[in-house]
Task: structure prediction
Amino acid sequence: MSYTLIIDNHASKQLLSIERKFSNKIIEAINKLKQTPRPHKCKKLQVEEGYRIRVGDYRILYTIDDNQKVVTVYRITKREDAYKSN
Result:
């Protein structure tokens, strides 16, 4: 069953600031979350709610609402900045 994908404003702005050669791979990975919200190499976050997947040096942080069938991407950033609180 397919999930609805939401990319919040903060994550959209982060995606726009990433070089195109990386952003295309990130967009591809995000789109795959519609069919498989918990891919093989996803990690459940320890400090905050959600999951993360890795695309090169970038991390995509997102939450899953299984009842509503919604995946919400809330942060797309390089690894060293991914887990800093905003």
Summary: Residues 20-32 form the longest helix (13 residues). DSSP finds three helices and five strands in the chain.
